[in-house]
Amino acid sequence: MINGIDLRNAIISGANNIVKHKTSVDELNIFPVPDGDTGTNMSMTMSSASRELSKNTSSNAGEVAHTAASAMLHGARGNSGVILSILFRGFSKGIEGMEEVSGTDLANALGIGVEAAYKAVMKPTEGTILTVSRVASEKGKAAAAIDDDAVYVWSAICKGAAEALEKTPELLPVLKKAGVIDAGGRGLCYILDGMLSVFKDGTIIMNEADSPEEQAAETDFFRNAAAEFDQVINFTYCTEFIVGRDLECKKDPQELRGYLESIGDSVVLVDDDDIIKVHVHTEEPGNALQSALVFGQLLTVKIENMKEQHRKAAEANEEAKAKAVASLEPAEPADEVGFVSVAAGEGLKTLFTDLGCTHVVSGGQTMNPSTNDLLAAILATPAKTVLVLPNNKNIIMAAEQTIPLVNDRKVIVLPTRTIPQGLSAMLAYDPDASTEVNTVAMMEAASNVSTASVTFAARDSEFGGHKIKAGDILGLNNGKLELIEKDIVHTCSKLTRSMITRGTSFITIIYGADVTEEQANEAYNRIKARVGNETEVTLVNGGQPVYYFIVSIE
Questions:
Q1: 455-473: per-residue pLDDT in tens?
Q2: Helices 78-94, 129-146: crossing angle, 10 deg rounding
Q3: Dihedral angle computed from the Cα positions of residues 373, 379, 385 and 391, in that order, rounded to the nearest 10 degrees
Q4: 476-515 burial, b if ≥16 CB within 10 A, otherwise e?
Q5: CB burial class (10 A; 0-12, 13-18, 19+) of residue 532?
Q6: Nearest one of 366, 378, 321, 398 to 544, comparing CA atoms
Q7: Which letter does DSSP use for residue 294 in this model?
Q8: CB contact at 8 A, 373 and 325
Q9: Between the CA of residue 188 and those of 40, 47, 194, 368, what are the distances in Å?
Q10: Strands 296-305 and 237-245
């Protein structure tokens, strides 16, 4: 039999195991566009349970499961995290009030979670975490009919999950084409295996992802786009120096480049007749400097510990995040209607605020806010009815989880999938109309908007028959890959022109944090020249990370 302490340790072990392997799960994501990766979202969701359970000393299995499920519900991030929280919520209901649980109890409880997860997804897709959890539950129930031993049953659950995972490419063609298994299913297997380690041997798998850069990946929720994908710092020291060239030295500076590339990465070397300017990430800054002395005297030297910088940045961002959440004090629902939206970038936040949003939750494609983040904003909105605009398909489920958590006001989630959809929905709001009429009108306005997005490839991959290199510029037509280019302005202009129709009346170009005013104006001029005076074109500084341009086409 499994008691509360066993179950507590098992869930902590499962959380540690997914955190330990989150990078490998992230890498299973098929699409190379930067996003809220599956492994990261699942690990952060499980970690919320682990943190609460570390304070829990109950020996009652039902109470432990309830604590974990509640924490995961509030901490769920992304669709994978929400589905995971629903699985555990159903599991919790299945063993409610039980001091100890048998193998049959575990299998039946997991079955309740699986049933709830399938119901929660509008269009359940086989070949995903849903399939893996369902087959695991079925195998567990079959095992329980043979032997009620908890270890025997949970072993069968893990084996069933692993077998189902290997078959996911056969069920989902996009996985087979990419030659990978499902990321969510893989993450679930790590969690189940971590739990088995405790049930079977009493061993809690330790979280080995405790280096500063790994901690930053968990805690630094508001990172900029560049840091977002530098999750593993391969070399500690960022080394920069300028060499005053010795005119008698006839060696080619490219020899220095070759040596630096052998001891580090991110090598940049620029030389002219007088100086050689160098940037390199390395574990051997002394050797880098020594090798440069062959070419002349060192004029300037700067060496910085990037891991320490990363750690400090994570701490600072965690403090900022805590202050932001703490500043959202619950407000009495006095007004009739209020709005909460999700956006990243000061310009976009200002846009939504100007359109009437009481609170704009920081988040977006690479940083999915948790259910608790959204809940805090809803409760801080002084309205009897709060309309929530997620503005991202991977945030909609987390937003919907807030509805049963709020008792003193009505929450309506408008399933906006992009920033332009959210902006158009807000523009369509009529303060004189009823909530029901506005809900329909706002979603109708959102559905009439096309979204062009320009971003970069976060990793090397093959997609749709195209080979994509990390750093390539990608043009997305309503989320679908359309262009692979090298220049952000050219991509923005070409993509937008391809999406314009005779009925296009308005084009809004929202440029991001990594775009200069010159580049933004060039994109505006190219698009304006294409559409002439028939279409109104507006340029807005959104300041968003990750996406160089987001273009609304109406």
A1: 988 777 776 667 888 788 9
A2: 20
A3: -10
A4: bbbeebbbbbeebbbbbbbbbeebbeeebeebbbbbbbbb
A5: exposed
A6: 366
A7: G
A8: yes
A9: 13, 14, 10, 19
A10: antiparallel
Please name which of 225, 195, 116 lies closest in space to residue 455, comparing C-alpha atoms: 225
Q: What whole-number distance in Å separates Cα of residue 78 and Cα of residue 313?
A: 24
For residue 19, the surrounding DSSP H or E stretch is: helix 4-20
Is residue 549 within 8 Å of residue 523, measured between CB atoms? Answer: yes
User: Which token pair is 88?
Assistant: 């555990």
* Residues in a beta bridge with 537: 507
Q: Which token pair is 187? A: 């993450």
Look at residues 87, 147, 136, 130 and name the one whose alpha carbon lies nearest to residue 107: 136
Least confident of 168-182, 322-336, 480-494: 322-336
Tell me phi and psi for residue 388, to 5 degrees.
-110, 130
Nearest to 404 by CA among 438, 375, 382: 375
**Are residues 113 and 86 in contact, defined by beta-carbon separation less than 8 angstroms?**
yes
Residue 322's pLDDT is 57
pLDDT surpassing 50 at residue 230: no
Query: What span, in angstroms and rounded, lies between the C-alpha atoms of 232 and 211?
Result: 10
Separation between Cα atoms, residue 397 and residue 360, nearest integer Å: 17
For the cut 60, the answer to whether the pLDDT of residue 321 exceeds it is no
Residue 329: closest CA among 295, 283, 399, 377: 377
Q: How many angstroms separate the most distant Cα atoms in the chain?
A: 85
Please answer whether residues 391 and 416 qualify as being in contact, where contact means their C-beta atoms are separated by less than 8 angstroms.
Answer: yes
Pair 39, 183: CB distance under 8 Å: yes
Question: Tokens 């992304």 map to which residue?
Answer: 78
Confirm if 263 and 282 have CB atoms less than 8 A apart: yes
pLDDT at 212: 39
Alpha-carbon span 554 to 542, nearest angstrom: 18
Write the DSSP string, 76-109. --HHHHHHHHHHHHHHHHHTTT-SEE-HHHHHHH
> Measuring CA to CA, which residue among 429, 432, 457 is closest to residue 443?
429
Q: Rounded mean pLDDT of 236-265?
A: 88
Higher pLDDT, 402 or 79: 402
In 3D, which of 175, 139, 196 has the Cα closest to residue 38? 175
**More confidently predicted of 36 and 521:** 521
